[in-house]
C-alpha cells in the first residue's frame, strides 16, 4: 500500500527546523524587508515566535522545542503566505512592536517603524535639553498623522501627566488606533480626532507636537517594492520631494505651541532641502541607532 506523501509540516519538527526553513524560503524568494525586520533571519524569528505566541526577543530558549502538528502547519502557512503575497509579516500576524511594546496593525495603517518611539523612550527627553521643565511638566501633546496610534500611546507613557490629541485624515486608520488605545488602557488620556493636520484642533495649544508624516518622494513611490504596496498610499506619499506635508506642519506649528514647547518631526532624507528652504530655522537633528539627520526638533522660541 503506497505511503501518504509527506508535507513540509511533517518534515519540519522543531522551532529550529522552521526557523532555518523560513530563512531559506525568504532568501530564495528575494523578499524585501523593512517593516520591523531588516533581514531574512530577523523576519523568520518574528514570524516563528509571534506565530507561536512566544516572546519575540527570546528565540534561543525555544530552538529545540518540538512543535505540535497544528503549530507546524500554522507556521508553514504563515511563511508561505509571506512569500506568495509579499505582505509584511506584521500584517499576516496582526501585530508589531515598537521598543518591545505590542500594537495591533492591519492594512488600514502602515506598519509603524518610526524613529520617534526610540527617541521618546530613550534619552531624548531624559533631561531638560529639549523641554526646559522636563517630561513631568508636559501636560498636553498633539500627534499628527497618528495612523495606528502607537506614537500617541508611547507619548502618554513617556509623559504621565499629559493628555494627548491624536489626529489622522483616514477613518480606517483611526479604527485601528481606537483598538490600540483601548488595548493599552489609554482611552481616558488620548483623544482620537479625524481631520487634516491642525484642522480638528483649531485654537488649541500644546507643550509638545510630534509627527511622523508621509514623506516618501514621488520618485521613490514609483519604485517601492511589493511589500510597501500593501500599505495605504495616503500614509506614505509626501509629494514631489516628499516634504509637502512637512511644510504645512512647519507653517501651522507656531500657532499651536505653548511657550517652552516644541515640535518633534521625522522627515526621512529631506534634510538638505529643508535646511536650504528654511535658513532661519535652527533645526536640531536627533540621531537614533539606525538613523542620522532624519528627525528634527524645533522649540516654540525657534519660530519667533
UniProtKB/TrEMBL annotation:
> What GO CC terms are in its UniProt record?
ribosome
- Cite the EC number: 2.1.1.298
Q: Which residues form the signal peptide?
A: none
What Gene Ontology molecular function terms does this protein carry?
methyltransferase activity
> What's an example Gene Ontology biological process for this entry?
methylation
Specify the enzyme's EC class, one word. transferase
Location of the Methyltransferase small domain: 139-219
Q: Does the record's keyword annotation contain Electron transport?
A: no
Key word Ribosomal protein present in the record? yes
Protein keywords: Methyltransferase, Ribonucleoprotein, Ribosomal protein, S-adenosyl-L-methionine, Transferase
Q: Which PROSITE patterns match?
A: N6_MTASE (PS00092)
Concerning InterPro entries, the annotation shows:
DNA_methylase_N6_adenine_CS, HemK-like, Ribosome_uL3_MTase, SAM-dependent_MTases_sf, Small_mtfrase_dom
> What domain of life does the native source organism fall in?
Bacteria
Cross-referenced NCBIfam families, in alphabetical order? hemK_fam (TIGR00536), L3_gln_methyl (TIGR03533)
Protein name, per record? 50S ribosomal protein L3 N(5)-glutamine methyltransferase
Source species of the chain: Alsobacter ponti
Q: Give the source lineage, highest ranks first.
A: Bacteria, Pseudomonadati, Pseudomonadota, Alphaproteobacteria, Hyphomicrobiales
Q: Which gene encodes it?
A: prmB
Amino acid at each position: 500500500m503506497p505511503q501518504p506523501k509527506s508535507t513540509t509540516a511533517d518534515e519540519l519538527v522543531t522551532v529550529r527546523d522552521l526557523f532555518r526553513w523560513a530563512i531559506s524560503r525568504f532568501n530564495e524568494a528575494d523578499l524585501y524587508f523593512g517593516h520591523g525586520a531588516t533581514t531574512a533571519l530577523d523576519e523568520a524569528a518574528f514570524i516563528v515566535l509571534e506565530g507561536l505566541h512566544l516572546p519575540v526577543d527570546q528565540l534561543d530558549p525555544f530552538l529545540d522545542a518540538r512543535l505540535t502538528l497544528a503549530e507546524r502547519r500554522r507556521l508553514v502557512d504563515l511563511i508561505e503566505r509571506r512569500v506568495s503575497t509579499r505582505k509584511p509579516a506584521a500584517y499576516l500576524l496582526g501585530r508589531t512592536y515598537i521598543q518591545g511594546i505590542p500594537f495591533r496593525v492591519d492594512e488600514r495603517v502602515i506598519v509603524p517603524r518610526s524613529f520617534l518611539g526610540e527617541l521618546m523612550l530613550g534619552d531624548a527627553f531624559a533631561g531638560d535639553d529639549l523641554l526646559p521643565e522636563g517630561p513631568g511638566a508636559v501636560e498636553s501633546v498633539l500627534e499628527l498623522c497618528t495612523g495606528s496610534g502607537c506614537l500617541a500611546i508611547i507619548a502618554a507613557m513617556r509623559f504621565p501627566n499629559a493628555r494627548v490629541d491624536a489626529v489622522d485624515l483616514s477613518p480606517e486608520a483611526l479604527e485601528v488606533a481606537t483598538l490600540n488605545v483601548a488595548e493599552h488602557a489609554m482611552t481616558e488620556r488620548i483623544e482620537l480626532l479625524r481631520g487634516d493636520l491642525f484642522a480638528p484642533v483649531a485654537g488649541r495649544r500644546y507643550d509638545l507636537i510630534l509627527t511622523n508624516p508621509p514623506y516618501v518622494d514621488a520618485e521613490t513611490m514609483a519604485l517601492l517594492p511589493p511589500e510597501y504596496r500593501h500599505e495605504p498610499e495616503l500614509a506614505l506619499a509626501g509629494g514631489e520631494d516628499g516634504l509637502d506635508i512637512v511644510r504645512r506642519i512647519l507653517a501651522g506649528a507656531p500657532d499651536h505651541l505653548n511657550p517652552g514647547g516644541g515640535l518633534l518631526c521625522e522627515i526621512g532624507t529631506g534634510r538638505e532641502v529643508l535646511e536650504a528652504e528654511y535658513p532661519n530655522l535652527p533645526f536640531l537633528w536627533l540621531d537614533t541607532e539606525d538613523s542620522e539627520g532624519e528627525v528634527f526638533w524645533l522649540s516654540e522660541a525657534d519660530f519667533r
